[in-house]
Amino acid sequence: MARKKIKSKDKHILALSTLVNHPSAILYEKEDLIAYDCDGFTIHKATPKAVVFPENTEQVAKIVKYCHDHSLPFLARGAGTGLSGGAIPLNGEVIISMVKMKKLLSVDLENRRAVVEPGFVNLKLTNTISDKGYYYAPDPSSQYCCTIGGNVAENAGGAHCLKYGVTTNHILGLEVVLPNGDVIEIGKNGIADEPGYDLLGLITGSEGTLGIVTKITVRILKNPESKQTVLAYFDKVEDGSQAVSDIISAGIVPAALEMMDKTAIEGVEAAAFPVGHPKDIEALLLIEVDGIEAGIGEQIEQILQVCRNQNVREVRAAKDEQERAAWWANRKTGFGAMGAISPDYLVQDGVIPRSKLPEVLSKINKISEESGLRIANIFHAGDGNLHPLVLFDARIPGETEKAMEAGSACLKVCADVGGTITGEHGVGIEKREEMRFVFKDEEIQAQTDIRDVFNPDNLLNAGKLFPTPGRCAEVKKEMKAAAIS
Ligand SMILES: Cc1cc2nc3c(=O)[nH]c(=O)nc-3n(C[C@H](O)[C@H](O)[C@H](O)COP(=O)(O)OP(=O)(O)OC[C@H]3O[C@@H](n4cnc5c(N)ncnc54)[C@H](O)[C@@H]3O)c2cc1C
């Protein structure tokens, strides 16, 4: 096929266009680049230099090597659903989009693993293997469109991660293009527990700052024999929170244990998947148990009783699979549903010890009152992963900044009760400064030192994950000076 002539005169665009093998595999014109100026964190925007669409590891490696050799900043992008700004081209990066690398390379049912390219969409894996009785456990609410490469970078979680663990617990091997263009394989043959440093653990959750993942071996699980879901409505948040603690203390390990507060319920009921939740309750719980058929009934009875002991207004198990699916669609589309009650919203992602739920929720209410902004709460209550959603209107001058301040204040509350600033959405650019809520300068320095080993020129996804360098650089200098003297 004749190559489409590249109109740009920029020598880097011309060179990069020769490293991908399809005429439409590079975007460089202003109007095309607008779609790549942010991800799911829409408050901050920046224009990339170009977007390239490689089709295999070799092309990724060549693009990375070119960027490295010519000191061009670059970053990887999956589906762009990240909520902390990890894929935003802060420094006018060359974006390396993984969307053309979307093949399911192999499925090995006997050894319960599958190999995918990074642009493979999360839910497609379960959809492809479910008829054979298997599924892929990490289930972020964005799973219908986010990529497994993006999940690895963010160490994504989901409703069912309470029982099954987050992405890192399901990754057996990775192929990674390092920031100089070298290609390495870790977890060879899908054997995760290799001798030496745990590089799989290091790369997973490194937010695209250590390398670009080009192949992923994941663990797949056998479908549970049976599952059942309970819905419980509470007039007091404290009662709902206590029920969460009591379920876990009773020795039950639900597959999922989710909570929504009154404002969140108003949102999901006004959006695309209403199920008729009463709007005057203060909290609802969605509790799912799974496992062998014989044990499910007993667990459901125990859960119903725990909720009754906590003054539940109404509690019942789903009458059939259709109702169960409707409850989950209502919950899983919860973030987007905020668009039905507010022009803009900011998703936060704090983690707290479960026992602190009532205290933290009351402090978040106080932040809402003081800021004058409504805050909805939708969260993975079972593992204490809160998602305060700050509702605001970006058209009102100053309101975006106010929302950012309120979001940050929510994270401070989480850190102060012994929790942390992100459970699954990552730090990105959004929570860089909040890293100081949980780490001392020396601890941040230890992490940036690791980044510098992989990414010494900091050309890959610079400006993410860590606070502005000033103070850390000073600490480093002080430490060096102390060592010399
Ligand atoms: C409505 C909604 C609901 C969500 N629900 C959840 C949830 O329940 N749980 C959860 O954990 N998250 C959730 N998210 C956040 C988001 O979907 C996840 O962080 C997801 O893992 C991002 O995947 P992506 O393909 O969109 O990655 P992107 O947004 O494109 O990229 C995210 C980061 O990963 C890096 N990256 C992407 N691909 C690669 C690669 N191949 N190699 C190296 N780095 C790479 C990017 O540079 C960036 O830093 C939600 C988002 C939305 C919009």
Automatic annotation (TrEMBL):
A Pfam family the protein falls into: FAD-oxidase_C
Keyword Oxidoreductase: yes
GO molecular function: FAD binding; oxidoreductase activity
Protein keywords: FAD, Flavoprotein, Oxidoreductase
InterPro entries given in the database record: FAD-bd_oxidored_4_C (IPR004113), FAD-bd_PCMH (IPR016166), FAD-bd_PCMH-like_sf (IPR036318), FAD-bd_PCMH_sub1 (IPR016167), FAD-bd_PCMH_sub2 (IPR016169), FAD-linked_Oxase-like_C (IPR016164), FAD-linked_OxidoTrans_Type4 (IPR051914), Oxid_FAD_bind_N (IPR006094)
Domain of life: Bacteria
Names of the cofactor(s): FAD
tRNA processing keyword on record: no
Domain spans labelled FAD-binding PCMH-type: 44-223
Protein name stated in the entry: FAD-binding oxidoreductase
Source species: Cytobacillus horneckiae
